[in-house]
Amino acid sequence: MRLVIVTLVGLMLMACSPLTPPPAAELTIPATYSIPVAAHGERVIEDWWLDVADPQLKELQAQLVRDNLNLRQAFLRLDQLEARQRTAQAGLFPTLTLNGGGRREQTVGQNGENQTSTGRLTLAAAYEIDLWQRLRHRTDAAELRLLVGEEEVRTLLLSLSARLAELYFIGVEQRAQLDLLKQRLDHNQELVRIIAERYQAGLAAAAELYQAQQNLAQMEAQIPLFEITLNQTSNAMALLLGQPPGHIRIERTDLPTLSNIIDIGLPASLLRRRPDVSAALLELDAADRELAAALADRLPRLDLSANIGRSVTRLSGGDVTGTFWSLALGLTQPLLDGGRLKAASDLQLAIRDEKQLAGQLTILTAIEEVESALLAEQGSFRREQLLEQQQEMNNQVLKIRTENYLLGLTDSLELLRSEMAQLDVRSQQLSNRRQLIGHRISLIRALGGHWLDDELPPRTAHHKTR
C-alpha cells in the first residue's frame, strides 16, 4: 500500500509540469470591408426566398432537404462522426468484463481413473487514470469533429439551396425570354412583310429586304437555345431533388423585382453566420486537442485493474470452492521507441498549424465572396437603372412615332422598328434582372445563415430509419 501511495504522489507531482503544446497563431479578421456598404439596409432573413412570394420555390426548397442525395450522404457521414465520438467517450469510463469457464477431465493414476470438474466465474474491471487528460483531449476532439460535421451539413445545405434558387430563376428567365421572343418574332415577321411589299413597289433596296430576312432567321435560331437551356436547367433541378430528368416543370414566367438593400454588417459577423467559418474554427480547436493528446502519449500511463471471482473444483476426495480477488496498479512509461511518439506529436503539430492557415484562408475567402457579390449586385442595380432610362426614352420615341403614324406623318416601318427596339431593351432587362437575382443569391449565401435548419432532421435520426 505504501508503494501505491508513493507512486500516486510522484505522479501527481509530475502532473504539475506536463508537456504543453505551443499555442497556435491567432486568426485575424479585418474590422471593416474595403468597400462602402449600406449602414441602414435590410437584415438578411433566413427564409429569404419567401420575399419573392413564390410557392413553387418554397416547396422545392423543402423537397431539397428531404430528397437531395448529397445531403443524405452528409447525414450518414454525420452518423459516423457521432459513432466515433461515442467510441472516444467510452474510454473515459471503466470496463467491466464477465468471464466464465468450465472444464472436466479424466486422468489415470496409481489409484485408477480420476475425474475432475472445474468451474470458474470472474468479474474483471479495468480503468486508466487519465492523469494528463489524454483521453479527455481525444474525446473533446471527437466531439468537436461532430460539431464540424454539423456545420459541414449546413454549409452543404447553403450551397444546394442557393444552387436550386439560381437554377429556378434561370429557368424562369428562359421562359420569359421565350414569351418575349415570340412577340419579337411577330414584329420581325411583320417587318419583313412590309419591306417585301416596299421592295416589290420599288421603294426599298434588295439589301434592306435581305437584312430583314437575315435578322428574322437569326431570331428564330435563338428559340432552340432558350429551349435547351430551359430543359437543362429543369434537369439539373431534378438531379438536386434526387429525381430523374423530366420531373420538374417551372411554372413562373416573370422575374421578381429587387429593390431592397442588404445590410451586410461587419466581417466579424461572418464568424457567427457562416457555417464553413465555424467549421474551420472547430477543426482548429479539435486539432489542438489532438496535439495535446499526442504529447500526453509521451508521459506515463497509470492503469488500475481488479478481478473478483469464484471457483469450484470437484475432486474424488471432495469439492474445493472459494472466492478469489486481485487488485493491481500498473505504471507504463515509454523509454525507447525509435522516436515514434515524438514523430506522432510533431505530426499533430503540423496538422494543427495547417488547420490554422486553413481557418485564416476560410475567413479571407468569406470576406472576398461577400465583397465580390456585393460589387456584382451594385453593378447590376446600376445597369438596371440605365436600362430603365433607355426604356423610358424608347417609350417616348414610340409614343411620338405612334402619334405621327396616326397623323400620316410617318409610315408603319418606323413605328415597327421602334416597337422592336422596345422589345430588345425588355430582353436585356430580363437578362440583367436574372443576373441581379443571381448576385443577390450569391450575396446572401456569402453572408451565411442557417437556412432551412427547421427542416433538418434531429441529429439522432439523420435521414435513416431506426
From TrEMBL:
The signal sequence is: 1-24
**Domain of life the protein comes from:** Bacteria
**Which residues, by range, are in coiled-coil regions?**
383-433
List the keywords (alphabetical): Coiled coil, Lipoprotein, Membrane, Palmitate, Signal, Transmembrane, Transmembrane beta strand
- The principal localisation class reads membrane
Record's subcellular location: Cell membrane
What Pfam families does the record tag this protein with? OEP
In what way does this protein cross or attach to the membrane?
Lipid-anchor
What terms describe the molecular function in GO for this protein? efflux transmembrane transporter activity
InterPro entries given in the database record: MdtP/NodT-like, OMP_efflux
Instruction: Give Gene Ontology CC terms.
Output: plasma membrane
Tell me the PANTHER family matching this sequence.
Answer: OUTER MEMBRANE CATION EFFLUX PROTEIN
User: Would you identify the family this protein belongs to, as annotated?
Assistant: Belongs to the outer membrane factor (OMF) (TC 1.B.17) family.
* Name of the protein: Efflux transporter outer membrane subunit
Organism of origin: Pelovirga terrestris
